[in-house]
Amino acid sequence: MTTDNQIFEAIRRDPANADFTAQGWDPLYHIEPDATILIASQAPGRKAQTTKTYWNDPSGDRLRTWMGVTNDQFYHSGKIAVLPLDFYYPGKGKSGDLPPRKDFAAKWHPPLLALMPHIQLTIVIGAYAQKYYLGKRREKTLTATVKNFRAYLPTYFPIVHPSPLNYGWVNRNPWFMDEVVPALQKRVARLIK
């Protein structure tokens, strides 16, 4: 059986990641053998990458609020795993961070997921993760996919990215805080025990 440490070292040694390794960056993800919740998102932000702590930024603060968990539960409960579509900060784009590299998740998610047999819910954050995890089942827009979140339960729970860049989206879609967030908190509370 392949271990987490073996996979971690294989990711670091992969020639596709040589530039990141040369900068002193390690792949940033988190697995827990007893995890019941997986957070699937785009890629680490710059602060998360440089501090080597996933979701260590205002987006992470907001995500924990939406999930209804404390920092201690998020980082130390043993019930939450984190697999972005790319384990390295991709750089800055015109309106936010660059997208995750193509095919990265297809290569590294399956062996890591195999180490976490108790995942019951995958929180699918943002359009890139929704495309990868929901595929053709997703709606034509991110907004429609998130609004129709019940169609993906109990396995998947699609949400918008909690980035400050999306404050406007949240304000324009009050149903998200009224309906989606309470449903997410209820589901997370059941699985984090």
User: Order of strands across the biggest sheet?
Assistant: 2-1-5-6
Please state the structural category.
Answer: alpha/beta
Rg over C-alpha atoms, rounded to the nearest angstrom: 16 Å
Q: Give the SSE string.
A: HHEHHHEEEHEHHEHH
- The number of strands is 6
Summed up, the helix count is: 10
Any low-confidence stretches, pLDDT <50, length ≥5?
Answer: none
Largest sheet: 4 strands, parallel
Protein architecture, described:
This protein has 193 residues and is α/β, with parallel strands linked by helices. 44% of the residues lie in helices and 12% in strands. The chain contains ten helices and six strands. The protein has helices at residues 4-13, 18-22, 46-51, 58-67, 71-76, 104-113, 126-134, 142-147, 167-172, 175-191, and strands at residues 37-41, 80-84, 92-93, 96-97, 121-125, 156-159. The longest helix has 17 residues, at 175-191.
Question: What brief labels describe this structure?
Answer:
alpha/beta, 4-stranded parallel beta sheet, 6 strands, globular
